[in-house]
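PROTOCOL LOG
Step 1. Enter all chains and additional molecules of the complex.
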Amino acid sequence: MIMINLIGILLIGGLLAMISERFDDKMPRKVAMAVVLTDLLYLLMCLSGMPEITQLQAPLANDPSTWLMHFKSDWIPAFGISIELALDGISLLMVLLTLVLGAIAISASWTDIVVRKGFFEANLLWSLAGVLGVFMALDLLLFFLFWEVMLIPMYFMIAIWGHENRGYAAMKFFIFTQASGLLMLISVLALVAINHSNTGVWSFSYFDLLNTQMAEQTAHWIMLGFFVAFVVKLPGFPFHTWLPDAHTQAPTAGSVILAGILLKTGAYGLIRFAVPLFPEAALNFSYPAMLLGAAGVVYGAVLAFGQTDFKRLIAYSSVSHMGFVLLGIYAWNELALQGAVMQMVAHGFSTAALFMIAGSLQERLHTRDMRQMSGLWQQMPRMGAVAMFFVVASLGLPGLGNFVAEFLVLLGLFKVNAWITVIAATGLITGAAYSLLLMQRSFQGEVNKKWADHGLIDFGSREMLTMAVMMIALIVLGIYPQPVLDTAHPVLQSLLELTTEPVNTVAEVVR
Amino acid sequence: MSETIWVIPLIPLLSSVMLMLFGSRLKITHIGFLGVASVGISALLTLVLAVEFMQNQQIIQESLWTWMEVAGFAPGISFYFDGLTLVMMSVITGVGFLIHLFSTEFMEKDPSYARYFAYLNMFVAAMLVLVMADNLLLLYLGWEGVGVCSYLLVGFWYQHNANGQAARKAFIVTRIGDTAMALGLLLLFTELGTLDIQAMVGAANQTWQIGDSIPLIACLLIICGAVGKSAQLPLHTWLPDAMAGPTPVSALIHAATMVTAGVYLIARTHGLFLLAPTAMTVVAVIGIATSLMAAFTALMQTDIKRILAYSTISQIGYMFLALGVGAWSAGIFHLMTHAFFKALLFLGSGAIIHCLHHEHNIFKMGGLRTRMPVTFWSFMIGSAALAALPMTSGFFSKDQILLQAYQLPDLGPGLWMAGLLGALLTAIYSFRLVFVVFFGEANTEPDKDTGWRMAVPLSVLCFLAMIGGYFMIPVAEVFPASDGSHPAHWVEYVSISVPLVGLLVAYLVFFNRRLNIDGLANSTVGKSLGNFWLSGWGIDWLYDHLFVRPYYGLANLLKSEPVDGIYGLIVALNQTFNHWLSAAQSGRMRWYLASMVAGLIILITLAANLPTGVLQ
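Step 2. Run joint prediction.
Step 3. Record the structure below.
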């Protein structure tokens, strides 16, 4: 029930936020913040009563009783569709990340949103609800449902509150994700049908569908359906082109959720579904997948370097960073997978913060064009210092979370394929190039006279508090990542066991 | 003290964090006090540690916590302390303290005083972590940490685009080396299962034979990192530009400490290099080539800081030469003496720049001997040590390197002769600087003399640059002992006399002008060679055309996202079909009837041609 409540609080909270606008137009953001914090608190309270996750036995992938939480109730019994939710270490990490970044997104929307505030916060909360559902649903149809639920509010957020080219960006976002969602639906149905013909039972449950026997070719094609759906979301090269537009046009809070959380649903999907459901097919596909990951790292970095739009640059940096996640997942050993999970968390914070800075700049300067900026440190030293922190975090400075993530990915990847590791490692150099260019063009350099008499306002206490949360998170992840690693460890362990056989063959194939 | 060595880097770190958080609310004097005192305390604690170490020779290992633990990969936040660490820590905290003190006066008028000390303290903390780390990953943390601090301090005066450019160049060029080094770490962990330096070297000696290819690759990757950080060929181009930072920063980071990190890294992992003789030869060759290239370049520079920058590159070349020929302790010895005399020279040049309205061109100075006596004597002593004149600190360390290089079989005498040529050039360019700046006509009048906060560090460093050669560095236990043999006496005499010849040449050319080189300098060959050296052998130009511009070009080319073109094509295709189909719905009865009939005909033809049985 806890998981239903978690989602329910957000759904109902969204309605409340919408209604509250009738009383006072400053109410919705407060209501929304209260709702997310309540949700977070509720989750933490429930967790405190449970055994330490690190003491749990590895949750066996096909035995729901070993999971941290499990809930199942019939929905459409005739087709074996049920409301089945479950939580293990990885979903827990993602749920926590979602709620924390949700609160940060609401803080980002505090002064950014000026029209239809109630409806905005409602969409934000509903989108979060959808994401929570995605991270917890283990009935494949329910998963698909939540997958759609998180997109539609996001579409509205871009289409209504976005910037100058919002219509195009929102439509592009919608079509890309819908088309890939459709591929996933077809794959789900095909998988269920095969399972039915094997066993005579209709079931959409993850636990029933694991270990479904099928022909190698069939598995390959169904796996590809999942793969494309998730990689579009990640986004992986060459399916990433919706992202720069969506990010650039989305309001700040939308970008925070998009980059911080929505992208992670793609990575989560790969770890949870695409590989375990089709271990052999997926791992036979690991070589092309890793090449796509490496291509994303390099391509994203080069394109980021060429941008003049502050937000677009960060968007492309996400493409580059998510390339590491793809690499980590398809290297499929514990080091690399831990790195991928770590990258999901660390990138969530570092990119969310950079998008917030971009939003704050746009709010003050009414432009995202870096050619119009330069020397802003002079007037806004606090914002400059904060930006510097997140820029060095994103270029992978040791001692901050992103380094741990990228190093673990590379370490795991090196065992599998040294040459792809070399290609991916060039991302460390090109990453430094675009990150420092961002800093140079906006905060450093000659002071642009244009803004001299604008009286630009530096970060205030609300903004500094929000930033401090993310800074502390990155520092802790950087020097003591063990809690995160320990939370993910049992899950990864059981996933690796589930797919042990193919791993060896893949290692041989790749070598 | 030996149970809590981790407080030594912690104190400057805390001070840095405090300055970042509360710097804008503190008074100037408090900021200065915090900045200097934190490093001062670290220096005192290091001194205590040194006294203890001299008594008991105890190696200290301390583990605070496990950084991360994944599938057998468990580097710790843990420290390792031996004689080598002690030498490095003493240089970092000792010279660091003096430079912090000097900075309080040098930066006094700067509005970003707190930011300056925050970065500088952070640097000291990171540098201490680098040398105290017991595993390569923690070393890498310090390594990247000093890189970022260097970036922040080179670009400290961020309002000028050129400074930002120099700062980014410094970071990115070293990052190229760092990335190769990171790959080396990956290789070492994958092959040996640990990054703990002592355990790793032990495992390497059990797993590999001398001359195996994997240790060679690992060493070459480590060399890449060292070459980047220590500004050696081919990754040296960032250092001359890094002079854009405040001069005390150049003294601390780009002369005394950070740039010698590469030397430390190779010395620290020497157990690995002994397994890869080819890698050691590479180190020696890089060292001597860099040393000569930079010495020729220094000869032609007119900017006082750039002369010193190239001389730093050149001197680190000597340290690399020492490492490459297996003269480990001589290399570290030269690292220490170089830290003394080069910090002295940089601080001296800082004093000149400070008192001469930010003038950098040596030909606009002149005659400063009587008007800035403290600085004059600093430069005299510093240059003497740099040129390795007998009895100065630089003499003892450089002499050791040259003599040990000579003894290397095959390559030895060649390396020795090249080293001597470098020593000759060093003497010429260092005394060219002294004669031009301090003697002759005065071209610019200083507006003030140095205060005590500048004079004291200069005097202390003068003292160290004089007597540093008599220090015994406690590294006998760290490195394998040398065989103790000496080359023939004539080798020693030649080595001693070459710098004196250089001094004489500089004297004749730049002081009493008996030797006129104008004709030579103005000849076509002389001029083009001079310009070639002035430009640093055109290497910047080469890299600009080989790497920088193509990368900008590529980014520019891809900026508009060619991949999106594919999706654009799908959209266009859809729109075309849409166009055709909506054109079909014209509303004209004739058109509808005609297309219905046409459709029927096609269907009937198809049906007629179908094999029988299908329609039944």
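Step 4. Note key features.
Residues 347 and 402 of chain A are 7 Å apart (CA to CA).
DSSP finds 20 helices and two strands in chain A.
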